[in-house]
Specification:
By secondary structure, the chain is of the alpha+beta class. Helix content is about 15%, strand content about 45%. It has a six-stranded antiparallel β-sheet with strand order 1-11-10-21-22-12. Strands 3-4-9-5-8-7 form a six-stranded mixed beta barrel. Strands 14-15-20-16-19-18 form a six-stranded mixed barrel. Strand 21 and strand 22 form a beta hairpin. The longest helix is centred in the first third of the chain and has 30 residues. It comes from Mucilaginibacter jinjuensis.
Amino acid sequence: MKFKVFKLTLLLTVCFQVATKAQIANDSLQNKPSKLCATIPFEVLNGSIILSVKLNNNPRILRMLFDTGADGMAISEDLADTLGIKATRTKSASVVGGHADVSIAEGNMLHLDGFDFPNQNIALFKTTHKGTDGIIGNQLTKRYIVKVDFDKQQISLYTFGNYQYGKDGESVLVKLSGGIIVVPATLNVTADQANNGEFVFDTGAGYNLICFRPFVVKNRLLVNGFKPESMGSTTSMGVTTPTFNGKASAFTIGSLTPIKDMPIGLMSTGGSSESWNPGVDGSIGIRLISHYNFTINLQQQLIHFTPRANPSKS
């Protein structure tokens, strides 16, 4: 018994030492000035951010969706065959509405406007985002402070460190869950019904907001005053889920100014949505996100939002 207690004490001591060293390193890094590494232009397609990239030694320029709702890269199986990229293993991936089994190609080189990202894993799906060659997930946000300026149509990458956000805008604390950025928000379907939740910050989604089925059922959103205006569906990597579409009285990200009369989708039954448990309450898409220029700083676990004067120009 004493031996077991000793081993547990030793383990806790080692863990504390490792955590302390990591915290010291993180604190030291935050005291260093953040430096600009690159400024990368992007194209706007239906409000979404499109980056021009190359993979490995292939000269072909690919148009990739910048997708903070994904933890990695993805291209279609057909494109992978064309580029000579081969799968090395398989895994189950979570997509909106369910799960999909995907193949993974390991050890690829991503070339982004003269910037190289080695040893990248790429998921190979049957289909990917329409109008693009694939998606780039949180590879950038995990390694850099990422500033997205819709007005200038450019992404700036800064080293982690002491970064100055400027006087405009407001910061919202976020967390990283399974490689995905999650933000706190409050949904008022009706003026007198406030429901707090955690929502994926998803620049790769083409909607304003979708609430996932468990959150809809828990808060009885479809029967507590919501007025559906249409039926629709959302598709993610080949998984299609029906939705009821309408408007919410208000939606508030963190402590930002509430957005009034915002279009939303409430996930209905159908497909695999009934058994799907995503661990978050919904997804904030690019139509809402593009109301702001924003800076993602995962070292400080926050996103700094600056309201745009003319978001309709995206």
